[in-house]
Amino acid sequence: MENRVQWLRLLVGIALTVVLLRVAQLQLIRGSAYRLLAERNRVRLVPEQAPRGLILDRHGRVLATTQTVFRVALIPQELEDLPSVLAHVGSVVHTPVDGLQRELERQPAPAFLPVTLVNRVPKDVAFRLEEERWRWPGLLVQADALRHYPRGSCAAHLLGYVGQPTAEELPWLKAYGIQPRSLVGRVGLEQWLDAVLRGRAGGVMIEVNHRSRRVRVIGQRRPEAGARVVLTIDAQLQSTIEQAFGTQPGAAVVLDPRTGEVLALVSAPAFAPESFATLDTQAIRRILSDPGSPLMNRATAAAYQPGSIVKLVTAAAGLEHRLMAPATVISCAGSTTIGDRVFHCWKRDGHGPLTMPEALAHSCNVYFMQVGRSLGASRLRAALAQAGLANTTGWPLPERAGHLPARRLTEGEVALLALGQGEIEVTVVAAAVLVSALANGGRFVEPWVVRTVAGRPAGRPILRGQLGWSRETIAAVRAGMVEAVRHPSGTAHRALSPDLGIAGKTGTAQTHVPGRTHGWFVGFCPVEQPRVAMAIVAEFGGSGGELPAQIGRLVCESVGS
């Protein structure tokens, strides 16, 4: 018996020792870690996203703003009677209870964070639910700051759109206060300026009990709205050009040739960026499956054969190399023979004798094929590169470079290259920069679009170099552009305006689709003191003397009025 008591005392002693050692470990060694863990379990942060900053045009017109919308959410840890809550919400928002139940089950339920039940409800419905919320613990009506584009698809490719962060992005974005439901810039200016547009998130720090029920509010930090951004574009001019395109695919870039400011950047067809902000899956699916590729920015990310707008460079190269003078006459009989091949002018019965400005005005193929042959492949290719047609322009958003042939060319291929045909591709923004240099006397300007961020200047004119043509050459080329618009038989005559002088050049480029051509117009106005330079392309849109020239006139009349 006595041995049993001794063994019992020993076992109790060992057990007490273990308990004391464990208590010492918990209190002395791991105490601070467990206190921190308990504090984390006691305190919850309910985040509140900041409204994104406004985006305005040069005249203060709103292009992107924040719109308050209401959503109904539940906090699972506070729910006492889920079926009753769902029945109440369903009766108010006119939604079947089983649909609400499926929506609730579809989403994860992170600790003490609201789970969305109904994404958007009208204001009167939100107010009714809020008034009765005291009867339903765990039910929330939350006001969300949703990205809103009041001008619809206007400047969509420039502005871009917002969306929720991906699973790959979220871990490193959390350091900046980004939550799974936050909206971040995906493309365009929304992405490029995301850090300044999204502002600083806030939230409410609350204390909860062991059942995750709210006890009290510990503190609150109000969110800070993102910075206001002012652009160089003119929203009214942008809308005018977009409406003029209608259903015709194409692009236009309008610059101030003195500064490089982008006054309009159009890509058609466009899309509604708000579809991405509201997570409208059906609308997004339609955009992504549209064969017209509305998400492609044709102004900067697409390259086209330029056609006869290249004759501006061919003419200048011939003058610079002294192969001809502005008054040099070449006669067009309607065709010319190179080797064993006959190359036709677009006017089959010929233009007759023409000077260089007249050849530009009437866009005579025979004239410029002869000039191109005289230049040869090397000098012509160098002139096209010098004009910036194979380079990027310094545009701050993604931009595609043009293309010039690098291989050895036959004499016939050189003649076609002088007309803007063959292995040559040009972006619309590069063409706009080139015509800006013609308008301002020979300076390459870098296109820029952000004027101010939070009231501070964010852009300025940047000179990227000189065109390298003499004043006399530029004057002769400009004279041909003026005649192309002014003369009744000029190819750009549809750009003629009774209100101001316009200089222009059209182009009609062959494509891989038989009988379908790209139509181009490049030009500037007013002729005496240019304030606008532009490049416009109608994709598979026929002649450049039709819709593109008409849009050119609209641009000049809109800005000049």
Task: Describe the fold and architecture.
By secondary structure, this protein is of the alpha+beta class. The chain has 2 domains: about 45-230, Penicillin-binding protein 2a (Domain 2) (Alpha-Beta Complex); about 235-270 and about 300-560, 3-Layer(aba) Sandwich (Beta-lactamase), CATH 3.40.710.10. The chain has 19 helices and 25 strands. A hairpin with a 2-residue loop joins β15 (about 335-340) and β16 (about 340-345). α13 (about 310-320) runs antiparallel to α18, α14 packs across α18 (about 470-485) and α15 packs across α16 (about 410-415). The chain is elongated. It starts with a helix and ends with a helix. Residues about 35-40 have low confidence and may be disordered.
Helix and strand layout, with pairings?
Elements: H1 2-29, H2 31-42, E1 43-48, E2 55-56, E3 62-74, H3 82-93, H4 97-106, E4 115-121, H5 123-131, E5 139-148, H6 156-159, E6 161-163, H7 170-173, E7 184-187, H8 188-192, H9 194-197, E8 202-208, E9 214-221, E10 229-231, H10 235-245, E11 250-255, E12 262-268, H11 274-277, H12 281-289, E13 303-304, H13 311-320, E14 330-332, E15 335-338, E16 341-344, E17 352-354, H14 356-362, H15 365-386, H16 411-417, E18 426-427, H17 428-440, E19 443-445, E20 450-453, E21 456-457, E22 463-466, H18 471-486, E23 503-510, E24 517-525, E25 532-538, H19 547-560
Parallel strand pairs: 2-10
Antiparallel strand pairs: 1-8, 2-3, 3-4, 3-5, 6-7, 8-9, 10-20, 11-12, 11-25, 13-18, 14-17, 15-16, 19-22, 20-21, 23-24, 24-25
